[in-house]
């Protein structure tokens, strides 16, 4: 297997420049500082567990690039779950709609082709398993532990809660939980991910890092 050196800044792992370039070129909304924090958590989780790294909310693969790079370098794999029909806020007429992502034949969003092209262009498609389906349905039949759960799927209470309840039981004891779009102030954004984050803190997780709206958590020692 080819060796893919990582840059390091102090003790914080940083993706190789070509991985950062692929991330920045990918369709999506995650800013670089949050991506770097996600990558550092992924490297940490892979090193401490050796287990696959799971994402809920693939969209076009922007954050999956980082999980795939971390998984590749640790000899594991990234898993990414999405029905690829877009979240509420990505539908026509809503703030985050991108008309270029609509399948004209079906008349609905389909982010899977863009995701596949993105991971191919990044040279990382062999390091990601795309799970196409509804997160709670996939979680209900999933039977293996994962080293990281990154919640970035639907941002309603129904979806964010189902992602938490469906996937945290699959998280290894020493794995990491990452939640995106955590906004303590309602003026900054929707509150469902914040409520999931609060629930995790109340249910035995402790905060490891805060970067923008990205929260990294790990289980407290008992
Ligand atoms: C905010 S986007 C993910 C962004 C991506 N993580 C990135 O950084 O580029 C949310 C995604 O979650 C997906 N999604 C929403 N609800 C879902 C559900 N219940 N099951 C599976 N995927 C879902 C949508 O289709 C959408 O692609």
From TrEMBL:
GO terms for biological process: DIM/DIP cell wall layer assembly; methylation. It comes from the Bacteria. Keywords: Methyltransferase, Transferase. The keyword Methyltransferase applies. The keyword Transport does not apply. One of its GO terms (cellular component) is plasma membrane. Transmembrane segments: none annotated. It comes from Peterkaempfera bronchialis. This is Class I SAM-dependent methyltransferase. GO terms for molecular function: methyltransferase activity.
């Amino acid at each position: 297997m080819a060796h893919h050196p990582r840059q390091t800044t102090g003790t914080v792992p940083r993706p190789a420049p070509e991985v950062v370039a692929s991330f920045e070129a990918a369709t999506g909304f995650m800013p670089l500082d949050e991506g770097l924090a996600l990558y550092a958590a992924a490297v940490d989780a892979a090193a401490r567990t050796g287990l696959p790294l799971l994402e809920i909310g693939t969209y076009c693969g922007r954050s999956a690039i980082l999980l795939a790079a971390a998984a590749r370098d640790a000899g594991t794999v990234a898993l990414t779950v999405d029905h690829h029909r877009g979240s509420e806020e990505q539908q026509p007429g809503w703030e985050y709609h991108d008309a270029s992502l609509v399948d004209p034949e079906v008349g609905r969003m389909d982010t899977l082709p863009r995701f596949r092209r993105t991971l191919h262009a990044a040279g990382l498609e062999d390091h990601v398993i795309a799970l196409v389906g509804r997160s709670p349905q996939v979680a209900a039949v999933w039977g293996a532990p994962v080293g990281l759960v990154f919640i970035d799927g639907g941002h309603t209470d129904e979806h964010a809660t189902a992602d938490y309840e469906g996937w945290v039981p699959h998280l290894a004891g020493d794995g990491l939980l990452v939640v995106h779009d955590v906004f303590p102030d309602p003026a900054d954004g929707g509150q469902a991910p914040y409520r999931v984050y609060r629930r995790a803190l109340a249910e035995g997780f402790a905060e490891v890092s805060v970067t923008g709206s990205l929260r990294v958590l790990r289980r407290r020692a008992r």
